[in-house]
Design goal:
This protein has helices at about 1-5, 10-55, 60-85, 95-115, 130-135, 140-160, 215-225, 250-255, 265-270; strands at about 85-90, 165-170, 195, 200-210, 230-240, 255-260, 260-265, 310-320. With about 350 residues, the protein is an alpha+beta fold.
């Protein structure tokens, strides 16, 4: 202890040196671990770089030119594809008066076309635009979407009319405004979709009609040959039910008097077995009514009658945006598909 007191500064310096040495050793090992981790990451990046450099095609000037040529081919393909799809034409400066005129002209044209083709429509049908025909003022931002939907339904109905379906049951479209006739049977829950990559808009619709198998084939061919781009998403075909007409005299016969037995009700006669076709209540035989022989089937007689079909089709109209055009005042004439001529 006396030596430590005499050499106190030396002892303190020695203790500090030992502490610093321990800290240095700890820092060394910690740094070595960090250095090993960084070296491992560096080796992984070097291997990834080597893989990219050795991969084919290599990003040299020749391959870069090939990529540019492929980009030109893709642009040319997109430009050619646009010509095969419909164009989203939005009339400019469309106001309530011009839209009302277009709406009435289109509905009148479709009604005349259905009468000419013998297609039955629902009574006083508005082609899903009953609300717009009632309102005197429509929101300005809904006029262009409504005009687009009106044009789409015009094209769809003309395909059905050219196919000469039996009757048009219902049409459905998307709502042009957020609060447009909430819960209406003429509106779909789907919304208009967009494809940002191709710059196309997708408009969903649903149509229901009655027809036979031949007319259904004509409808599908009409959509295929139409200048518009239709994508059929769903199709549901249901057999029509056979309706039987009840005999108006059946109830009278069931409850009327028994022929040859005045004062006796038909139900009472059945109860006591007096209707013929077997013994009565007391075991007395009753005369049998003669059974008519079935009529022979003639050669060429129709033995199979096709029932009408109720068809529901969910489809989408794909369009590419183009420049606006001047508003129209009457329904345009639609080309007739080659298959329906």
């Amino acid at each position: 202890m006396a030596w430590i007191k005499r050499n106190l500064l030396f002892v303190v310096g020695l203790a500090v040196s030992v502490a610093l040495l321990g800290a240095g050793v700890f820092y060394l090992f910690t740094t070595m671990d960090e250095a090993d981790r960084v070296n491992a990451e560096l080796d992984a990046k070097n291997q990834q770089l080597d893989g990219l450099v050795k991969r084919e095609p290599y990003p040299n000037s020749e391959n870069i030119e090939k990529v540019k040529e492929e980009q030109k081919r893709v642009e040319a393909f997109k430009k050619d594809a646009r010509t095969r799809f419909g164009q989203l034409v939005r009339p400019e400066s469309l106001d309530n008066a011009s839209f009302k005129s277009l709406l009435e002209a289109t509905i009148a044209g479709l009604t005349r076309q259905s009468e000419r083709m013998g297609v039955k429509l629902p009574e006083k049908y508005d082609f899903t635009f009953a609300e717009q025909r009632k309102n005197l003022q429509l929101a300005t931002n809904t006029l262009a979407p409504l005009a687009t939907q009106l044009n789409d339904l015009d094209n769809i109905c003309r395909v059905l009319f050219d196919a000469k379906v039996h009757s048009l049951v219902a049409l459905k479209r998307t709502g042009a405004a957020s609060g447009e006739a909430v819960g209406s049977v003429d509106l779909l829950t789907k919304k208009v979709g967009t494809n940002a990559l191709a710059g196309a808009s997708i408009h969903p619709y649903e149509i229901s009609f009655q027809c036979f198998s031949t007319e259904l084939g004509n409808v599908l061919a009409g959509f295929l040959n139409s200048p518009q781009a239709y994508v059929l998403k769903t199709i549901n075909v249901e057999r029509g039910s056979t309706s039987t007409t009840p005999d108006p005299n059946a109830a009278a016969v069931a409850s009327g008097p028994v022929p040859g037995r005045p004062g006796m009700d038909m139900a009472m006669a059945r109860r006591y077995g007096l209707m013929g076709g077997g013994g009565n209540r007391y075991g007395q035989p009753q005369p049998q009514a003669p059974v008519a022989a079935p009529a022979p089937t003639r050669a060429g007689e129709t033995v199979l009658e096709e029932k009408p079909l109720r068809v529901t089709i969910g489809l989408e109209v794909v369009k590419f945006a183009v420049a606006s055009v001047a508003p129209v005042s009457e329904a345009p004439t639609k080309p007739t598909p080659p298959s329906a001529r």
